[in-house]
Amino acid sequence: MFTTRLKSALAVSLFAVSSLSFAADIDMNADANDLAIKGYDPVSYYTMSAPKMGSADYTATYKGGIYRFSNEENRDMFNKNPAKYAPQYGGYCAFGVAMEKKFDTDPLAWKIVDGKLYLNLNKDVQKKWLTDVPGYLAQSDDNWQDIRKVPAAEL
């Protein structure tokens, strides 16, 4: 009886610890289920020049966020070099980071600059960001180091 209760308690403890290890990092924009970029395939931005919805059949984890892919090939490409394909600033709005904020993003408001994927809050915000991409990226790069580990609600 005692052994059974001990095994049960141990199993619950291990489950709790393993669940925490998969939680998205604080510098990762993911939903309550740790799904990154709302389920869009990050590799498709590069290979198709357009965002494509990923499938739960093809997934990979990076920095605690779960990424979905439209096919096995894209998932394998991502797994070989996730930093190349994952959106910058943990998937937070590039313009927002320039303003020292962590805003959610619309996966359809995107741009690849110098081989890196950037997302924006929405297409209206993206229009503003596009007026000075180099300037906003310089601000964002500086700001990201200071805000990356700060919860979005505290900014």
From TrEMBL:
Signal peptide span: 1-23
Keyword presence, Signal: yes
Keywords in alphabetical order: Signal
Stated name of the protein: YHS domain-containing protein
Family annotation (NCBIfam families): YHS_seleno_dom
Source organism per UniProt: Thalassomonas actiniarum
